[in-house]
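Weekly modeling sync, notes
Attendees: S.R. (lead), two postdocs, one rotation student

Agenda item 3: backlog of single-chain predictions. S.R. asked that every request posted to the team notebook include the full sequence so nobody has to chase files. The rotation student volunteered to paste the first one in as an example of the format we agreed on. Action items at the bottom.

Example entry:
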Amino acid sequence: MSDRWIDYVRGGVDRAGGPVPFALNQWSFLAPITAAIARHSPPGARLLDVGCGAGIYSSLLAHHGYRVTGIDEEPRIVAFARAMSDYFRASAQFDHGCASDLTKWHGQFDLVYSLGVVEHFDADVTAELIKEQSRCAPVVLIVIPTQHTRFAAQPTDERFYSRSQFEKLVTRTGLEIRESFVYGDLPTTPAKATRWLLPKGLHVPIRHLFTYGMGICCVAGCRR
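Predicted structure, as returned to the notebook:
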């Protein structure tokens, strides 16, 4: 498993043409996520990235004024993320840690996020991972792929949810949904036709309702 994920992380950067093209592509694709982070924690906030992968997104957030710490349970991925942070001359920090036990980071951050991590487990484990993240920060932002991820990469062991199904899973942890949305345009003819023919006031609600996009972002926090 570890070797597969190392190959996935490094291979993703290589297939993009190197760190810079990868960073540009990721920053553009994750623009809705970056905007959501800013809505709930403005620059200067302390962010924890659980399952940091290559660490490039965290490095870019650091350049936008955030104090970012990324963790991963595979030491070789942590080393790669540190190398990428050095490459981009970013202030992001990276450490070894397990998503199921974040005790070391409890109560130390303003927002914790994970991108494509929790969907690799059964629903009960996913709920526990989200709950553990909530012990690190008052705001939790979780991003998972939809079933349409096949247009970007070959699915492996992911569990796929609709937007409403994932909201229900998150609320099982005792957290309150602050916002959720579907993002990422699909490269299909029906999706392109929908974007062209429908006004944005209709296109966006339809995408959210039918989970007709590449990913789901859910932001949650303690009940008020």
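Discussion: group reviewed the output briefly. The chain has a mean pLDDT of 91.
Action items: rotation student to repeat for the remaining queue; S.R. to check formatting next week.
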